[in-house]
């Protein structure tokens, strides 16, 4: 099985940005109000994939872009279908360009760390599983 951090390229991120922007733009043409930001959705989806909240199974879905795009669509759908108790129009969360850039750098550093320490992390996980099974 391939790891997402090994396959997450600038091209995939760019494709994902255009896909997400297109989805959100289509929603803005409809008579519903949405404050969904493409960058925020992309950051969340990439984070969830890299942190294994929504892990990429390359055997079931060989194309990482497809996996990410599916989760973008689900994230947008979820945000649109929040109940009034979860979201109010005046409860906007706005991130500055600096905050988004910092988040992107954190993701990039996480990817580099995971790549550089992959063997040790796998070994530690195997040891933890052995201890857990006992």
What would you say this structure looks like, in words?
This protein has helices spanning 4-7, 10-28, 38-50, 64-80, 97-116, 118-133. It has 134 residues and is mainly α. It has a domain at 4-95. Helix 2 crosses helix 3 (38-50), helix 3 (38-50) packs across helix 4 and helix 3 (38-50) runs parallel beside helix 5 (97-116). The two termini are 26 Å apart.
SSE blueprint and pairings:
Elements: H1 4-7, H2 10-28, H3 38-50, H4 64-80, H5 97-116, H6 118-133
Helix pairs in contact: 2-3, 2-4, 3-4, 3-5
Beta percentage is under 5%
Mean pLDDT: 77
Unreliable stretches covering 5 or more consecutive residues: 83-91
Order of helices and strands: HHHHHH
Tell me the Rg in angstroms.
Answer: 17 Å
Q: Counting H and I runs of at least 4 residues, what is the number of helices?
A: 6
Distance between the termini: 26 Å
SS elements, strand count: 0
Largest sheet: none
Q: Tell me the overall shape.
A: elongated
Based on secondary structure, the structural category is: mainly alpha
| Assembly form of the protein | single chain
* Helix content, binned percent: 55-70%
What brief labels describe this structure?
134 residues, 6 helices, 0% strand
Q: Care to give the gist of this entry?
A:
By secondary structure, the chain is an all-alpha fold.
